[in-house]
Amino acid sequence: MSLRIEGLRAGYGEIPVLHDVNLEVREGEVVALLGRNGAGKTTLIKAVMGMVRVFSGSVAYRGRELIHLPLFRRAQLGLGYVPDDRRIFPELTVRENLLVAQRPGRWNLEQIYRLLPRLKEIEHRKGGLLSGGEQQMLTIARTLMTNPQLLLLDEPTEGLAPLVVEEIARLVLELKGEGLPILLAEQNLKFTGQVADRAYVLETGEVRLEGEMEDLLHREEVAALLAL
Amino acid sequence: MDLGFYALQLLTGLAYASTLFLLSVGLSLIFGAMGIVNFAHGSFYMLGAYFLYAFTRGQADGFWGGLLLVLATGFVIGAFVERIFIRRVYARPEEYQILLTYALLLIIEDLVRFFFGTGYRAFPMPQAFAGPLFLLGTPFPSYYLFLIGLAAVSALLLGIFLYRTRLGAWIRAATQDREMLEALGVNVPLLYTVVFGVGIALAALGGAALLPMQAATPGMAVDAVINAFIVVVIGGLASVWGALLGAVLIGLVQALGVLFLPEWAMVFPFALMALTLLLRPWGLLGRPPAVRT
Ligand SMILES: Nc1ncnc2c1ncn2[C@@H]1O[C@H](COP(=O)(O)OP(=O)(O)OP(=O)(O)O)[C@@H](O)[C@H]1O
Ligand SMILES: [Mg+2]
């Protein structure tokens, strides 16, 4: 088991956003977190990293309780967080953005450039000057440089052109092929259907549905919960 | 007034700018990377001067060793203060850091009065700089050149550190998005300790380097921190090169002001700051606050 969340209540200030969430990600599995705007997907991913307030419940990674660990320790243990708003360091070059994240393992600058040649072409460009698609590639690549053992991907396709979405899908499938477990927050059902094995559907901070991705794709409640 | 006289004023201004740079650059670095406004910054500058005096017992022959020792002690004290005090206020509203660093300013001032008394502590000019040099026929203290060289070397080393090392890249990244940097597995709390230590060490070095020219008093901390804020506001918070530019501008404005309008000289730095705030509130080399999307 890569990640096990039990009875999680989390939110901001005094206000819980998530109520009693239970969720699992097994080794090698891509799990989607579906739900419309404001359902609590981002809050859940941030709670795993310890970036929002957790009121109660448990977040265990490979059997180890994370709740009291600082953010950098969670990352060092193998959690790789890719934020929905990308958060590229704007004044650092593409290369520097990658190098600040480097931790020992399979992924290094050379491997990243082989996987995403576009990043090599723009390696001396400042992060703040990239297009949306380039930034999205860089934010994923930067997290890969930490050599994560579990990837937390928050809406990687948001606001991107269909061609770029295809590229992200290829990238995610490649990582999946290497056995990297992924927790993926998404609203794009087509993309999610291409890459995910299982899914949880959130509504107002609670898990309404869970199951195999293939089954969920054809269920009408899912479309309703996503307000499609 | 001949050319040599003007050259001397210029040199005086640059020498003054050099100590201002050492004083201010840490304030800028600390604010940039950590978001802490350190009102006690001038107090560590003052401590540098008193420490040099204490380490050498006021004897000029201990100058070089004393200077290195001040740099090292400055780092240790800065790191210690970050660990024990500053660390507690990151998660709190900004009033707390202002109260805390202001309290440190008061405490350090009283400690200095307690240990060193309220009078002046002067330091003799080190042997190497005893005789004057001549520029276009006008004599000037050779120590000016040392101050300018010290600041230039410090700026160069700091530039290499920030732009050519991994630790430096982390510090720059922290200036842009601390939480994201930590989410990538960088021990940001430890990074803060190092940044605070480096900033304080530079301020202490600046204070110590000025001692042979200007005696130390318990009141110098407040003057120093005001000057440091002026420099940093003009140059741009969070920018090393801004601190350099701000220090040089203030140094020159002071030196020329004394020359042409001596009764107004005190006002010029403030006027320059006011002008900057009106025309470019984020400072000459600072960046306007970014709106994150
Ligand atoms: N910083 C914050 N402070 C207070 N409330 C917040 C904050 N961020 C989000 N919320 C609230 O928490 C709830 C869940 O938001 P969250 O961002 O987790 O949703 P989401 O499923 O990621 O939505 P989206 O698809 O728009 O990204 C929303 O009601 C939102 O208003
Ligand atoms: Mg979200």
UniProtKB/TrEMBL annotation, chain A:
Keyword Chaperone: no
Keyword DNA repair: no
UniProt entry keywords in alphabetical sequence: Amino-acid transport, ATP-binding, Nucleotide-binding, Transport
Molecular function as annotated in GO: ATP binding; ATP hydrolysis activity; branched-chain amino acid transmembrane transporter activity
Domain ABC transporter: 3-226
InterPro entries, per database record: AAA+_ATPase, ABC_transporter-like_ATP-bd, ABC_transporter-like_CS, BCAA_Transport_ATP-bd_LivF, P-loop_NTPase
Pfam family, one: ABC_tran
Single GO biological process annotation from the record: L-amino acid transport
PROSITE patterns tied to this protein: ABC_TRANSPORTER_1, ABC_TRANSPORTER_2
Coiled coil: none
SUPFAM superfamilies: P-loop containing nucleoside triphosphate hydrolases
Family per similarity comment: Belongs to the ABC transporter superfamily.
Protein name listed in UniProt: Branched-chain amino acid transport system ATP-binding protein
Organism of this sequence: Thermus arciformis
Lineage: Bacteria, Thermotogati, Deinococcota, Deinococci, Thermales
Automatic annotation (TrEMBL), chain B:
Lineage top rank: taxon: Bacteria
GO cellular component, one term: plasma membrane
Coarse class of the protein's main subcellular location: membrane
UniProt keyword annotations, A-Z: Amino-acid transport, Cell membrane, Membrane, Transmembrane, Transmembrane helix, Transport
BP GO annotations: amino acid transport
TM helices/strands, residue ranges: 6-29, 36-56, 62-86, 98-123, 143-163, 184-205, 225-252, 264-283
Topology of the protein relative to the lipid bilayer: Multi-pass membrane protein
Cellular compartment(s): Cell membrane
Entry's Gene Ontology molecular function annotations: transmembrane transporter activity
Family assignment from sequence similarity: Belongs to the binding-protein-dependent transport system permease family. LivHM subfamily.
Name assigned to this protein: Branched-chain amino acid transport system permease protein
Provenance organism: Thermus arciformis
